[in-house]
Amino acid sequence: MTKTIGILTAGGDSPGLNAAIRGVGKTVEGHYGMQIVGFRDGFRGLAENRTMDLGGGTLSGILTVGGTILGTGRDKPHKMIIDGVAQDMTETIVQSYQANKLEALVCLGGGGTQKNALWLAQHGLNVITLPKTIDNDVAVTDTTFGFDTALGIATEAIDRLHSTAHSHHRIIVVEIMGHRTGWLALGAGIAGGADVILVPEIPYDINCVAEAIKNRVRKGKTFSIVAVAEGAMSKTHLDEVNEYELIKANATDKEEKSRAKKKLARLKAVHRDHAITLGLELEALTNLESRVSILGHLQRGGTPSAGDRLLATRLGTACADYIAQGRFGVMVADIAGKAEAVPLEQVAGNRKVVPLDHSWFEAARRVGTNLGD
Ligand code: F6P
Question: How far apart are the C-alpha atoms of 69 and 310, rounded to whole Å?
Fold first, then answer.
């Protein structure tokens, strides 16, 4: 009997997803004689058994297309919001997997998806995953598809901001995605020649940043580009987070604990108009006019770069090989140029931050970039 492979994309969309779907699909069909079926909108589509036929010519012409032809969503199998209430849909998902007579389920996603995939593997499904995200923060893999495209877009944005910042003698704060890591901001900041780069890995001192900008003015450079990761935090902000962590840990009654938890959630939120506050603070401290540019979802949209198409195709086709070998409960990681199968337990719940001894930090400092410390 022909084996059937299910595939879904989950979490934020990312350039290269379609290239990966194509890589998996064409190899399982053309090389291994299996068939492939897509589930729409992530784990929700699997729970609701909303499928998309990926056979025949469906996979042709999608290599260069951004987003995901399957649609995506941020639902968790064990906590899916149905009619406003969180429900555990694990059993329904297992039934849908069985009803479709799946040999395996391929999940394409970032950190959250790896956790959800492990959960389903622990509930008996043959799961295999691929690492996708513009944030590049998935553990164990050297890189994730989507990152290279976003890096190119953010770099081009910084290039373009230079001429307008220069013409108006302004500070331009450019907010770059990356969730709680600084891969994208640091990479684009270096490639685009930002004067200041602020990332979550290095809590920053606002006075140090202002001083660096004033130093540039003294040298006749009356504009500055500040690349700030959406998850970056000032030292003051971090102190406040630590203070509330302590309050939460020492709280004796339930209400106090819950208040501290809520406050912490607000303090740790990634999307919090951080760049706007930063621009205003720097304006006050330097007497230079500032503007803020939040790149947002532009960084995730559009056609994937050649690098992402290559990576997604390489990992996608290798994924099909691992399926044929019966290797499940693994993520296909990019390690030193090879597509390696690593146990999901090593990936799920572990975030890959930029190590402080990473050569990018060293390079940025060498060229005189201020890192806020
Ligand atoms: O994980 C990818 C990412 O683009 C992050 O960089 C960002 O924090 C988040 O997704 C934005 O999520 P949403 O698309 O739900 O606004």
Answer: 18
Over residues 59-93, the pLDDT tens digits come to 999 999 999 999 999 999 999 999 999 999 999 99
pTM of the full structure: 0.96
Express each pLDDT in 24-59 by its tens digit: 999 999 999 999 999 999 999 999 999 999 998 999
Contact 177 CB / ligand 1 (< 6 Å): yes
d(CA 146, CA 73): 17
118's tokens: 């492990």
Following DSSP, what letter does each residue of 23-74 receive, concatenated? HHHHIIIIIT--EEEEETTTHHHHHTT-EEE--TTTTTT-TT--S-TT----
What is the distance of C-alpha 317 from the center of its chain? 22
How remote is the CA of residue 12 from the centroid of ligand 1, in Å? 6
Residues of the chain with pLDDT > 90: what percent? 97
- CA 272 to ligand 1 center in whole angstroms: 13
Which of 135, 137, 148, 308 is flagged as catalytic?
135
Domains for the chain: give ranges and CATH numbers: 4-146+304-347 (3.40.50.450), 148-300 (3.40.50.460)
Q: Give the C-alpha separation, 181 to 162, whole Å.
A: 24
Active site residue 321: no
Q: Count Cβ atoms within 10 A of the Cβ of residue 73 and give its class: 0-12 exposed, 13-18 middle, 19 or more buried.
A: middle
Residue to probe by mutation, ligand 1, list 108, 135, 299, most atoms within 8 Å of CB: 135
